[in-house]
Amino acid sequence: MSEQEQVYSSFLKRCKSTPKRLATIIKMKRDSGYSTTAEQQKQEEKLWDALKITACVLGTGLLIFTALVNSVSGCVQNIWDTLGHFWQTSWLKFYYMFEGKEWTIFLLGAALVPGLAFWGFNGILMVADVTGKPTFITRYRIQLGKNDPVDTKKLRQAIYTALCNQFFISLPMLVPMFYVMKWWGNTFSKELPTFRWFLVELSIFTLIEEILFYYTHRFVHLPLLYKHIHKKHHEWTAPIGVVSIYAHPVEHILSNTLPVMTGPMIMGSHIVSIAAWFSLALITTSISHCGYHLPFLPSPEFHDFHHFKFNQCYGVLGVLDYLHGTDTVFRQSKAYQRHRVLLSLTPLSESIPEAPRRAE
């Protein structure tokens, strides 16, 4: 038999066997299909059972959560009502004590109260800076070995400059602000704003301050302006609290005062809101400069790193630094790992120490 005949014969045999093979394949597929269908039904039943259990758990949890929220919100509302009545009564007593003299009330709320908050807080920090006591504070120092103790000559200069900025710049700037607030007509209202509205205002104040401070701060870091204006503030590479307003007069206007004053002027805020906001802003910037990462207070690592590196961390919240990429070095540092609220009594300089320097 020739080779061609053998190929042809093999082809015929394959053709004859094809129907049997097809039947076998179809049968196998049917059998496997039946088993697959049975398994699918079991899986669907399991899934349905799981969904029912999940719905039961979530439904029960939702009912409990709703009940808790209603009860808690009721308690919170009662607290707010009680506090609101207390503050409203106190405000009216204060208002009538000064017989509605708006300039006196404005001066006390926008200058005296924030000033007392600033110097009261920084007075405690300066005792620790000068004496090294109490050790409860000094053991939380960020830049170890710096300001231990602080140079008293530099400290006196910082206090003198801070007082000059407050009395000869911030205080006169309150005069035009006073007339802007009178134009709005709500600043000296006998009715206090609600707590919820104050929270709304506080959010807007913080956002405005972040924007204005970031860009004015970067502006004074331009070489020419830095040399003649901002370098004064950066004489302290390891800052202390009072250094927060140790600055050239131009910088104090642009970066320290206007970003804080603009929000209340835009919102036409009540004098009580202004007093609370100014005090909060001064204490917050003092914490950012204080040089200590104290328990349960906002982290000062962000701005302390700016004094250490100069060209990083220009803002307050860090949002614009992240968007503009001016915190990349900070994010790679140990300071970034420590940039959180300390919820224990162990200093973060101990739990997250700096990497040991290589021997030269």
What does it look like?
By secondary structure, the protein is an all-alpha fold. The chain has 13 helices and no strands. It is globular and about 65 Å long. 27% of the residues are buried. About 2% of the residues have low confidence.
The ordered H/E elements are HHHHHHHHHHHHH
Helical run tally: 13
Silhouette: globular
Percentage of β-strand residues:
under 5%
Model regions low in confidence, pLDDT < 50 over at least 5 residues: 29-35
End-to-end CA span:
91 Å
Q: Care to count the β-strands?
A: 0
Instruction: Determine the structural class based on helices, strands and strand pairing.
Output: mainly alpha
Question: Could you give a short account of the major beta sheet?
Answer: none
Gyration radius, rounded = 35 Å
The chain-level mean pLDDT equals: 84
Helix residue percentage: over 70%
